[in-house]
Specification:
With 66 residues, this protein is mainly α. The chain has a domain of 28 residues. 58% of the residues lie in helices and 0% in strands. The longest helix has 24 residues. The radius of gyration is 13 Å and the shape is globular. The termini are far apart. The mean pLDDT is 91.
Length: 66
């Protein structure tokens, strides 16, 4: 099995981790530091989906403001 979680910009790892916890808090999912294998797929999807939505929104706004 290959790991497809490598970062395009490795320097962004810490910021992405912080962002993940912020989004989890916004959607009401309680993440703890370290392993979170106990959360449901639905909750993990809420976090990931909202992260993607917010990142796309940010990119679109930056494109408009150029």
């Amino acid at each position: 099995m290959t790991n497809n979680n490598r970062k395009v910009v490795p320097e962004a790892r810490e910021s992405l981790e912080k962002f993940k916890y912020e989004v989890a808090n916004e959607v009401g999912v309680n993440l703890k530091n370290g392993y979170n294998g106990n959360i449901s797929a639905r909750d993990a999807g809420k976090i990931g989906g909202n992260m993607v939505r917010k990142l796309i929104e940010k990119a679109e706004n930056e494109m408009i403001n150029k």
